[in-house]
Amino acid sequence: MIYNDQHKGENSMEINARHLKPGMILMYDINGISGKPIVRKNTVLTEIEIEFIQKFLIEKVSVTHSPLDSQEVNLKFQHERITSEKQIGEKSDPFLSVYQEVTEQFKSLFASWQANIPVKMYRVRELCLPLFELVEAKTLSEIKTLLTGRAKDIFYYKIVAVSVLSIKLAQLLGYDKKDWLQIGFAAILADIGFAKSNTLANVDQANRSHPVLSYKMIKDEATLTKNAKIAIIQHHERLDGTGFPLQITAEQIHPFARIIAVSDRYFTLYLEVKKNIERYMVNEIGKFSENIVRVLIEN
User: Fold this and answer.
1) Residue 149: closest CA among 140, 137, 161, 138
2) CA-CA distance, 296 to 68, in Å (whole number)?
3) Count of domains forming the chain
4) Residues 276 and 294 in one domain
5) CB 141 within 8 A of CB 170
6) What is the CATH number of the domain that holds 30?
7) How far apart are CA 235 and CA 238, in angstroms?
């Protein structure tokens, strides 16, 4: 993260991010590696903004106090922030900012894998954990619309969106944190085999081979559980045996893989048909876990 350290105003003070309090006003933008603001200046900080500022290991920020009993001060800065955001067409949602930042950095990681640099799981964890830990506070409806308006680099946005949706479904299904984190890591790594697909003969071969290639890239990672690795190689299997690469059936498909399969299929349909996605999912219940599809639809 990059703290945009401009000339400090007379009434501002630089403090450790651990000492931030709700009601303080951020004096300058905090930019991500992509160069885009993660938190914008004039933001009246809430617990949500403070949490992810701290999760992204930002050490010091410049703030000014906002008297909590002064509505006028708060309204002034909130109005300035809303006006600015309308001008650039972005929503004031910390989660969306983190989602965009993670996608930009994941794209860089993917390029390194294309250049035959090995997967370093500690970098993947460092990148994804702040986003994954924000998922609990989001509704399923919010997560299901993550790809709205995304055109550039949709391949990378979809990968990250699938990981987030997989985590949310796992949470709604009652999984413990240690398991939904592993599901999230499996989901975000499930398609990295495409980084090696330029060595394959054709598009169909690349598509059907990428789960195996993804698995080979992470099979020796100690911080990924066996269940997560199985989910990576099985995430395109279908309950009726029509999936790939192994063409196994229901009883052989791991529950983690079933969750990722539903999430991936949802966002694939989201991009292809745009509407009536739930109807398509219901029609395909023979291929996917009915319980998971119901959670996706009924929530």
Assistant:
1) 161
2) 40
3) 2
4) yes
5) no
6) 3.90.105.10
7) 8
- At 294 the pLDDT is 95
Other CB atoms within a 10 A radius of the CB of residue 84 amount to 15
| Domain match, 131 and 75 both | no
Using the structure block, give the residue that is written with the tokens 């993260």: 1
Give dist(CA 190, CA 229) in Å, integer: 9
Long-range pairs for 108-114: beta carbons < 8 A, 24 or more residues apart: 110/156, 110/192, 110/195, 113/192, 113/195, 113/196, 113/217, 114/195, 114/196, 114/198
For the full predicted model, state whether its pTM sits above 0.85. no
pLDDT in tens, 52-76: 677 666 778 888 875 443 344 444 4
**208 shares a domain with 263:** yes
Q: Are residues 74 and 141 in the same domain?
A: no
3-state helix/strand/coil string of 111-138: HHHHCCCCCCHHHHHHHHHHHHCCHHHC
Q: Both 270 and 293 in a single domain?
A: yes
Domain final residue pick, 88, 123, 157: 88
Identify whether residues 160 and 270 lie together within a single domain.
Answer: yes
* Angstrom distance (rounded) from CA 113 to CA 119: 7
Q: Check whether residue 129 and residue 82 sit in a common domain.
A: no
- Which residue segment(s) compose the domain that 183 sits in? 94-298
> What is the average per-residue pLDDT within 167-191?
98
138 and 53 in one domain? no
Structure tokens at 38: 């993660």
200 pLDDT exceeds 80?
no
Domain boundary residue, one of 54, 88, 122: 88
Instruction: Give the closest residue to 127 by CA, choosing from 57, 211, 219, 210.
Output: 57
| d(C-alpha 70, C-alpha 80), whole Å | 16
Termini Cα distance of the chain: 34
- Average per-residue pLDDT for the chain: 84
Length of the chain: 299
Helix (H) or strand (E) run with residue 74 in it? helix 71-88
Percent of the chain with pLDDT over 70: 81
